[in-house]
Amino acid sequence: METRELICINCPMGCNLTVTIENGQAVSVTGNTCPRGAKYGISEVTRPVRMVTSIVPVQDGVIPMVSCKTATPVDKNKMFDVIEALEDVVAIAPVHIGDVLLENAADSGVNVIATKEVRHR
């Protein structure tokens, strides 16, 4: 049996979690003050995921860049692949919050979406 000590990042509480792992599976989580902490602890030791945020250039926009993020968290091992895939993306104004800027980023199964409105010049 193995244990991993984590700090939950789901809310500002920052609970100190202890996750017990047996045969590659999380069997218990302690230290959490809410169910989200337990879910996070299990996810972090079995399949860690992260949101990826970035910016991409905007063609013909009133501002030159638009902020974006993955629509859902991606596998932690795919983060840099997603960022690299964004290097070739150029949004075309107008851009609306929620517009898909990149489908299936780096074969992650996750879209990258705009998080800001950008009007056309």
Could you write a compact summary of the structure shown?
The chain is an alpha+beta fold and 121 residues long. Helices cover 17% and strands 36% of the residues. A hairpin with a 5-residue loop joins strand 5 and strand 6.
H/E element order: EEEHEEEEHEEE
**Which residue ranges are poorly predicted, with pLDDT under 50 across at least 5 consecutive positions?**
none
Structural class call reads alpha+beta
Helix content, binned percent:
10-25%
What percentage of amino acids are in beta strands?
35-45%
Strand order of the largest sheet: 8-5-6-10-9
The tally of beta strands, per DSSP, is 10
Explain what the structure shows.
17% of the residues lie in helices and 36% in strands. The protein has 2 helices and 10 strands, in the order βββαββββαβββ. The N and C termini lie far apart (61 Å).
Question: Which labels suit this protein?
Answer:
five-stranded mixed sheet; three-stranded antiparallel sheet; 121 residues; single chain; alpha+beta
How do the strands and helices of this protein lay out in sequence?
Layout: E1 2-7, E2 16-22, E3 25-30, H1 35-46, E4 49-50, E5 53-59, E6 65-70, E7 74-75, H2 79-86, E8 91-92, E9 100-102, E10 112-114
Parallel strand pairs: 5-8
Antiparallel strand pairs: 1-2, 2-3, 4-7, 5-6, 6-10, 9-10
